[in-house]
Design brief:
globular, 73% helix, mainly alpha, 315 residues, 3% strand, single chain, two-stranded antiparallel sheet
């Protein structure tokens, strides 16, 4: 794709607003790590039961999408005024950034800690910056971006060492755990790039709503067809699901709008904040170890990566 002029919005293109809203989105996504793990417990979802995870994630996405479409309808928008190509695009986006991303995210998070998973998911920033380099001419890699991605990736490696103090050969990485989290990050970054293109041709709110509804429906169909169901609905379990639904609807909408009016490289780098929020909140709500050398070293490296990638932008 060529470096076409970006759509400009006096509010959403303002640098301070971008920083504030992007940070808010990352705070929401970071809080998803402990919330999902708590949801697994409240809905009695076994870590080895993939089908139940699909149902849990499916209801989260499907209901979030319905909320967004309901808000759009109340705002007097014609939610069905879309071309055949629009339907095809949001369908592809729903499968890519919702169905596939959540499948690997939920499976991976069930087989690793919330702290570790949140740091690993920071790779979405690397994927976003790298993919933008090859797709957009006005979003190329520079020495600062390249060095920032390299340092941040080292941080991702550090968090996988079981014993950073004594044995650097003790590297803990499994495909079903850490591997799935990283694969989830790739699908999110790819969906982010594709979603930016789609948002230029249709309303961001409608795009996000249909994306979540379609992606969530795919997850629900897959989960129920495998014989799974949603666990016991109690006040606590319903509350955690409700929070995750609002979490997705708000964060995805704001993120789509930011991508519509700003460069992918500028917005995607804020995903590095997700590991920080995720690690801290997982430590607070799940009682997981946070103040370990490897976690602190990893977060310092990840933050350094953010600073280097945004260095050129700030100049």
């Amino acid at each position: 794709m060529t470096g076409r002029a970006l759509d400009y919005h006096p509010f959403f293109s303002n640098r301070k607003v971008v920083v504030l809203l992007a940070t808010l989105c990352c705070l929401f996504w970071g809080s998803s790590y402990p919330a999902i793990k708590i949801g697994f417990q409240l809905f009695s979802i076994d870590t080895s039961d993939t089908a139940e995870k699909l149902v849990f994630g499916g209801w989260r996405c499907f209901l979030a999408g319905l909320i967004l479409l309901g808000v759009a309808a109340l705002s007097k928008k014609n939610i069905f005024a879309m071309s055949r190509s629009n339907w095809a695009e949001v369908g592809m986006l729903g499968v890519l950034q919702t169905s596939l991303m959540f499948v690997f995210f939920y499976i991976g998070l069930a087989h690793t800690s919330g702290v570790k998973g949140s740091v690993l998911n920071g790779t979405v920033s690397f994927f976003g910056v790298l993919l933008a380099h090859f797709i957009y001419r006005n979003d190329r890699l520079s020495w600062a971006k390249s060095l920032g991605c390299l340092i941040g990736f080292v941080g991702v490696l550090v968090v996988n060492f079981e014993n950073l103090d004594h044995d650097l050969t003790d590297f803990s990485f499994t495909l079903v755990g850490e591997g799935c989290v990283i694969l989830s990050a790739f699908f999110m970054a790819a969906g982010m790039i594709y979603g930016k293109q789609v948002s230029q041709r249709m309303d961001s709110g409608l795009m996000t709503g249909y994306q979540l509804v379609i992606g969530g429906a795919v997850l629900l169909i897959a989960g129920y067809s495998l014989g799974a169901g949603l666990g016991p609905l109690t006040l606590r379990s319903s509350s955690i699901l409700g929070y995750l639904v609002l979490n997705s609807s708000i964060a995805y909408t704001l993120w789509s709008v930011l991508l519509k009016y700003n460069r992918v490289g500028l917005v995607s780098v804020f995903n590095f904040l997700v590991p920080i929020f995720g690690a801290i909140l997982s430590a607070l709500f799940l009682g997981e170890a946070f103040l370990e050398w490897k976690n602190l070293v990893a977060l310092v490296l990840v933050c350094t990566g953010i600073w280097l990638v945004t260095l050129e932008k700030s100049r």
